[in-house]
Amino acid sequence: MQPLRYTIRMTHFTPLSALAGGALIGLSATMFWFLNGRVAGISGVFGDVVLGRAEARAPKGAFVAGMLVAALVVGMLVPASFGASPRSIFTLGIAGLFVGVGTRMGNGCTSGHGVCGISRFSLRSIIATMTFMLVAGLTVLVVDHVWRLS
Amino acid sequence: MSERNGLVMKVITAFAAGALFTVGLAISGMTKPEKVIGFLDVSGSWDASLAFVMVGAIGVHLTARRLLGSMKKPVFAHSFHAFGRTKIDAPLIGGAALFGVGWGLSGYCPGPVIASSVVSGRPALVFIAAMVLGMGAWEILQRARATDPNKDPVAPLDATPESTDA
Q: What are phi and psi of A53, to 5 degrees?
């Protein structure tokens, strides 16, 4: 068997900013739950806005609008906080399809299952998070070290 | 509080929560797909940073839920979201697996890609267009199954359309 070929990446270990950013995400989820009674799961919030599923769409639409306005401001003040994906447009399109079908079928993504669900000890969310973490890791292994896809 | 003021407050606080969510994503590094892939790639030069995002987010949210757990209803809404599903079923595992493939392929999950759409342009927008297509396709399939009396739905549709995990 051929040895794995490593892709060198220029990313650094940044545990403190990761922890601080994570805390703000947790605070956002806390606000949305205790003020609005809603789960800050982005695939669900965004899906309900674009698919028109929820009867009261205005707050969810406002949540997405808040995300976009803040992104514009942060993008202007600290452009380096946004990075480009190393993958081709074609790969991103395929990935988007997988994420769209998968998050609706499995009822959540990193935020809904990974943050909100785990915080309320939901067994479904714990199992979903373990599953998508594991599969995402395996996907990177295959794509970067076996196929060497861009 | 009147019904109308309640809605206004919901919209204002939802907007603020969404803005805070993006700031959190940007500070944490989640809006850099390369870094996300570096986190998912445990075989080579593993960047463990993003595990700390989950620690921070779960730490704050879990603590807040414990402290405020006695609240009967949300401040500006009539009720908390009801979680309808409890079963560990095939759509849960299958959906999470499909999502994992897409996340690993791109380094984008829904939150960061939506935030990136107004900064990173075309790559993020192509991803989002495909994501909406995928969400819509699943939705159409679900509705078709729900109305077909000969078939059992993949996952039982709940009484209320909103009673999902997220």
A: -85, -40
Q: Which of A12, A16, A110 is nearest to B58 (CA)?
A: A110
Number of helical H runs and strand E runs in chain B: 6, 0
Residue B147 binned pLDDT confidence (cut-offs 50, 70, 90): confident
Work out the end-to-end distance of chain B between its first and last CA atoms, rounded to an integer number of angstroms: 28
Tell me whether B74 touches chain A (CB under 8 Å). Answer: yes
Q: Which of B76, B103, B142 is the mutation pick for testing A, counting most A CBs within 10 A?
A: B103
> The complex's ipTM?
0.92
Neighbouring residues of B26: CB distance < 8 A, sequence distance ≥ 6: A21, A71, A74, A78, A81, A82, B115
Distance (Å) from the alpha carbon of A1 to chain B's nearest alpha carbon: 16
Query: What pLDDT does A3 receive?
Result: 47
Give the nearest chain B residue to A70 (CA atoms): B19
Q: What is the pLDDT of residue B154?
A: 54
Q: What angle do CA B33, A137, B135 make, to 5 degrees?
A: 65
Question: Percentages helix, strand, coil for chain A, rounded to the nearest 5?
Answer: 70, 0, 30
**pLDDT greater than 80 at residue B13:** yes
The dihedral over CA atoms of A126, A132, A135, A140, expressed in degrees to the nearest 10, equals -130
Q: Chains A and B: how many Cβ contacts under 8 Å?
A: 538
For A51, which residue in chain B has the nearest alpha carbon? B136
